[in-house]
Every structure is written in C-alpha cells, then in structure tokens.
TrEMBL record:
Species annotation: Paenibacillus endophyticus
Location(s) in or outside the cell: Cell membrane
Lipoprotein keyword on record: no
Bilayer topology term: Multi-pass membrane protein
Protein name per its UniProtKB record: Putative aldouronate transport system permease protein
Amino acid sequence: MNHSKAVPTKPSQIRSSHGDRIFDICNYIFLTLLMVVTLYPFLNTAAVSLNNATDSIKGGIYLLPRMWTLDNYAYVMKESTIFHATLISILRTVIGTIATVFCSAMVAYTITRQEFVLRKFVTIAFILTMYFNGGLIPNFLLIRDLGLLDNFWVYIFPGLIGVFNLIIIRSFIEGLPESILESARIDGAGDFKMFYSIVLPLCVPVLATVALFSAVYQWNQWFDVFLYNSSNIDLSTLQYELQKILQNSNASLTTKSAGDAFANAGNSGANTVTPFAIRATMTIVASLPIIMVYPFLQKYFVKGMTVGGVKG
C-alpha cells in the first residue's frame, strides 16, 4: 500500500508567493489610482455641466454638482441649427469612416503584394505626406479647383486614405499566413475576390481599430467646416455649431457681467450661463456619442493596436 508523502514547501516558493501577493496589491493600487486620474476630469466636467452656471463660478465642484440644473444643456440645445448639424455630423462620421476603412484597406492590401512592382515607391510616397504638407492655402486652392467648396463631399474625399491607418492595416496583412492567399489563388480567385472574401474578414480587429480612429476624427472636425462650408448653414456640423455658441457666449458675457453673476451666485434662482459652463456642456455633448460607440469596439481595439509585435 502506497502512502503519499507531503512535499515540503521550499522557502524560495514561499518568498515567491509573498512577492506575487505584494506585486498584485501594488498593481491593483496603481491601476485604481490610474483609473481615478483618468476618469476624474470627465466626471468633473459632467458635474460642472449639470451645475448652476453662476454657482460654478465659486468653484469647489468635484464629482457631483452642488446645484443641479439642465439650463446649460437647454442653452446649448436651443439653437435651431443644432439638430440638423447633428445629422450632418452623423452622416459624415458614418460615410467617412466606412469609406476610409475600405479604401485604406484596399491600398494596404495592394502594397503588401510582392507582384506589385511599385509597392515600395507607393509606400514611400504615402509616408512622405506624413512629414511634408502643402500648407493651408495650397490645400484650399486644391479644394476650390476640385469643386468641393460648399459641398458635403469635402468632408469625405480629402481623408479617404490615412497614412497612419494604412501602415497599421499593412502590418496586420503582412502577418497573415500567405498560404491562405496562395490556396485561393490556385482555386482561381482574383485579387479583389481574395481581398473581399479572405483579407477583410481576417482583418476585423485592425479594421475596427482604424474605424474608431476615423470616427473620432470625423466627429470632432470643425475646422474644415469653417474653411470650406461656413457660408452654407445646411452643411454645418455639430462641432462647428458648438464652437459658434462658445464664441457668442464669450462675446456676450463681459467681465462685468461675470462679476455680477458671481455676486448673485448665492441666489439659487439666478443662472447666468457662463463660457465656463458652456465649455463643459459642449465637451459632454460632443463626447457622449464616441463614448457610447467605444465599448462595442474595445475588444478589437487592443488586439488591433498590438499588430506587428509578433509575426506569424
């Protein structure tokens, strides 16, 4: 009859176990502090946006509003152009993101093909555009000559291919097993068939990452509206309208009126909207759509950003 004997625990194993526990505790503390530091600015901005504007001048607002109100949001949303501008922003974000992801993926696939003799030249030509830019005036003249002034497509065409996105997608495609594409080629599939049926499904993580980058860029843009479509109110975007609201509030509220608002801050009924409160409200309004989209792409985001670290 065999009797099992307990294996004595070595001191080194005990020390290692204690060290692991200490490391885990320190890691949890560090990550908790990092989370607080990351979330606090957003939570503080949200608190300011939901607080009485004249009361906010006194300061002392941290995570929760001191005097709850929706007047700041009512002031921002009272503009008749806000909802139409929001629709334009949604359209440019959706169309621009889909077009950018698809076109960037096509070019990335092309420059990874060994049979494409100009792949190095094309790659260098794209990378050079990251370091050299024609400038604001040449870009404006080019847009004008292309007939894109006062045109919705000025939001889409200039950014169809992003070089940074191109490099990320190319690195991912280069890590795919070449044998899969060779098998498809033997079966008679053409390049577009291989791209559409094989490469795109395998590139979902990196495409989701690029889509997030592109969506954030398109949603936050307002300067191109100012340059190319400022005379056409039907093509104004949410960010541009919010920018105009902030400028109007800065112009209308003088130092004297701000001082009067501070003097009346103790009156709970007074709520003179201030640029500080408008800025906080604008930040929340502009950020919420991206925050709501990110959780659906987060599982792909980490994987997509680590492409190229380990080659198959």
